[in-house]
Structures are given as structure tokens and as C-alpha cells.
């Protein structure tokens, strides 16, 4: 297959993970990178052996040798660069979210289809070993029909650890747009499209003060909801509670759990950043046979059988934030291009996720049910031998 030549726009901290990972795959080659300053781009190019460095994203997009744009800019710039790249005839893979608004995302997806280009979007953590293991469990029927569930991103914001946390409390961020895409994309990959949404939202304070670090003492305006509760009804009939909050000091809630007619599966790590935004980690299972009332001895002692760790034989199981398989969604998109199929981390799914988030806020602010107009095809499971299985096509 033809090697796809990639141009990277935006070379912040996250870029090193992408660039290190992409070197592992013969199907892609990073040939250009750009920053807002040429010197920074040149340093990154030398660090990773990239032939070309540019002082602007526009220059990368204009490079005739670049086939695909990897957009790692801040969320406010996603739409601008994604649109320009598609207009220039480039395939696009972008960090989340696809755009700042559903209307912008809809325009991007329509343009990509009109021009016959592929559009992909992070997060690709749903392709990691833990969520693929849960997907396999669901598809096998061992859980029965999934009737409900819960997903909980619960923490106290970013001013305690981030050097420049102001953005997280402005439109386009907040807990829903910052971390929500990981949780919503995980649910979409497991359960399919959302049919209806209802929600309520609030914020604990109008300002926050940075307690430490380079911005210590800075007062941050809070212009977004920082505690959101939503109920998502899926086309399958599954009903899931979603909580995204920057207003909680600590919690004993699992990060995600799904309830089937034959059992429950959950992700139960307690750190605020250890849920579906990680590729690896354990998933726990308890079936109807392990319910304490199913056994008189356990029932009398009021003791359940311990949760079973589900054997995980899938690739991409890192639980590190500094070193993880981020970018496998892009690599899958490159193989999708060669095979004339839809990528797993597709623009359609990212657009649906974006619309669901917008529906959540619309429901909360207007006190209505909101029904998304978009849909998507649930992506196929990732092969156990990816990418070797893809090269056989």
C-alpha cells in the first residue's frame, strides 16, 4: 500500500507521544511539522527526524507532498485548520473535539464526504485493550442485553496541576468538553448511537483561584457549567447516567459501569484521570451466577463473590499518560483509506459525540429533551493482531 505522508500542525507536549508512536508504523511517514514559531518547529523536526519545519499551519497545508494533516492545535483552532486542510484536498485526523460547535463539525463532515476525503478524530482510547475487552464481552452476549449504566468523570478541575488552567473554565472546555469526549466516545463505541438526552447543569462558583504553580493567585472567571448530570438514551434502549464535574473533591463512584440482564461490567479505578481516557487497565465482571442471593451460604453471610478481572488479550494496554498508544486511530484511518472502508475513529462518530454534548447543554439550559439528528455505524472491533491483519488486505 502507498505510504501516507503526514504533516503535523501544533507541536505541544502531546505531539511527542503521537510522533514517537507513528514511527512504529510503516504505513505512515511524518514529513512536516509546524508551530507558531519557526524555531520551535525546527527543534521538534530535529528531535524526531522530520524533514520539513514550517512557521505556520497554512504552510503545512499548502505543501503538495503532504497527504494527511494531523491537527494537534488547541480546540479553538480545530475547525479553522480542519476546514482549510479539507478544502486543500488533504485527509484530516484531529485531536478532540472535532470542532467547537456541532454546526462547525457538521460542515466539516459534509465537506469531507463531498470531496471524497477521510476525516478522523480522537479520542482513540476506545481502541485500547480495556475497552476492546469490554466490547468483546458485550458482543459475546455474556452480559445479556445492556439495559443501563453510568459513566462518571469526577474531580476538582485543573488549577491544581496545570500551568495555564484558565481555558478549562471557558466555552469549549469545562468538564463536559474537556473530558466528556473520552467517556461519551467509549459509550458510543460500546453501545452505538444516542437517541435522546436530558440533563441538568450548574457551577459551584463564578471564579476560582489558582492555589499553586506559575499561575498561583490568579483568579479565573468560570464561564461554563462545572457540574453536569445527563441521562443518555441509546437507540438500543440502554439508559446511561453521565456525570462530568470539576466540583467534587473525591468520590467512590466507578469511572464506568454497564448493567446487563446477565451481569455487570465496570471500570473501578479511583484517580480522577484513570477512566476511559486510558488505553489499558482492568475491567471487572460480576455475573448473575455470582450474585450473593444465588448461593444460600453467600446470602446468609451477605457476601458477594469477588469481582472477576476480565482476561485482557488485546493490544494497546498502556496505563501511562506520558507513554501510550495515542495515534492508533490515525493509523487505522490510513489502512481504511487503502481498503476503502470507514475508519474506526470516524468523523461521523466524532460529530455524533459533539452533537450529544451540545444536546446535553441545550437540555440543561432550556429544560427540554434533546434528540440528536446524527447517527453513525458502531466501529468494528480492532483485530487482535492489528496492524498485521490490515497489511494482508
From TrEMBL:
Residue ranges of every copy of the Gfo/Idh/MocA-like oxidoreductase N-terminal domain listed in the record: 4-119
Where the record annotates domain GFO/IDH/MocA-like oxidoreductase, the positions are 132-265
Alphabetized Pfam families for the sequence: GFO_IDH_MocA, GFO_IDH_MocA_C3
Gene Ontology MF terms: nucleotide binding; oxidoreductase activity
Coiled coil region boundaries: none
Report the leader peptide range: none
Entry keywords, A to Z: Oxidoreductase
Top-level taxonomic group: Bacteria
Q: Does the keyword Hydrolase apply?
A: no
Q: What is this protein called?
A: Oxidoreductase
Organism in which the protein naturally occurs: Butyricicoccus pullicaecorum
Amino acid at each position: 500500500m502507498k505510504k501516507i505522508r503526514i504533516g503535523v500542525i501544533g507541536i505541544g507536549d502531546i505531539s511527542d507521544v503521537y510522533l514517537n508512536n507513528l514511527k512504529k508504523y510503516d504505513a505512515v511517514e511524518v514529513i512536516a511539522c509546524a508551530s507558531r514559531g519557526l524555531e520551535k518547529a525546527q527543534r521538534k523536526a530535529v528531535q524526531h527526524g522530520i524533514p520539513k519545519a514550517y512557521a505556520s499551519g497554512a504552510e503545512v497545508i499548502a505543501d503538495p507532498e503532504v497527504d494527511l494533516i494531523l491537527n494537534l492545535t488547541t480546540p479553538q483552532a480545530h475547525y479553522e485548520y480542519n476546514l482549510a486542510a479539507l478544502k486543500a484536498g488533504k485527509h484530516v485526523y484531529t485531536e478532540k473535539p472535532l470542532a467547537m460547535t456541532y454546526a462547525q463539525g457538521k460542515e466539516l463532515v459534509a465537506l469531507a464526504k463531498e470531496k471524497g476525503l477521510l476525516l478522523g478524530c480522537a479520542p482513540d482510547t476506545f481502541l485500547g485493550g480495556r475497552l476492546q475487552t469490554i466490547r468483546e464481552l458485550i458482543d459475546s452476549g455474556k452480559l445479556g442485553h445492556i439495559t443501563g449504566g453510568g459513566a462518571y468523570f469526577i474531580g476538582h478541575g485543573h488549577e491544581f496541576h496545570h500551568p495555564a488552567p484558565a481555558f478549562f473554565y471557558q466555552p469549549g472546555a469545562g468538564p463536559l468538553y474537556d473530558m466528556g469526549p473520552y467517556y461519551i466516545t467509549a459509550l458510543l463505541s460500546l453501545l452505538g448511537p444516542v437517541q435522546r438526552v436530558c440533563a441538568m447543569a450548574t457551577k459551584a462558583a463564578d471564579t476560582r483561584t489558582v492555589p499553586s504553580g506559575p499561575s498561583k493567585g490568579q483568579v479565573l472567571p468560570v464561564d461554563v457549567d462545572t457540574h453536569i448530570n445527563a441521562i443518555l438514551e441509546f437507540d438500543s434502549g440502554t439508559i446511561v447516567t453521565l456525570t462530568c464535574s470539576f466540583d467534587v473533591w473525591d468520590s467512590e463512584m466507578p469511572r464506568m459501569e454497564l448493567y446487563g440482564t446477565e451481569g455487570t461490567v465496570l471500570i473501578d479505578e479511583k484517580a480522577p484521570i484513570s477512566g476511559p481516557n486510558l488505553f489499558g487497565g482492568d475491567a471487572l465482571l460480576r455475573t448473575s451466577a455470582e450474585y450473593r442471593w444465588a448461593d444460600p451460604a453467600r446470602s446468609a453471610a451477605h457476601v458477594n463473590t469477588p469481582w472477576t478481572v476480565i482476561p485482557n488479550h488485546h493490544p494497546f494496554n498502556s496505563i501511562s499518560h506520558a507513554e501510550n498508544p495515542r495515534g492508533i486511530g490515525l493509523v487505522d484511518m490510513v489502512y481504511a483509506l487503502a481498503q476503502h472502508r470507514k475508519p474506526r475513529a470516524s468523523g461521523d462518530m466524532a460529530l455524533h459525540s459533539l452533537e450529544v454534548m451540545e444536546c446535553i447543554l441545550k437540555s440543561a439550559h432550556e429544560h427540554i429533551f434533546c434528540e440528536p439528528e446524527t447517527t453513525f455505524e458502531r466501529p468494528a472491533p480492532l483485530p487482535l493482531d492489528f496492524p498485521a491483519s490490515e497489511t494482508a488486505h
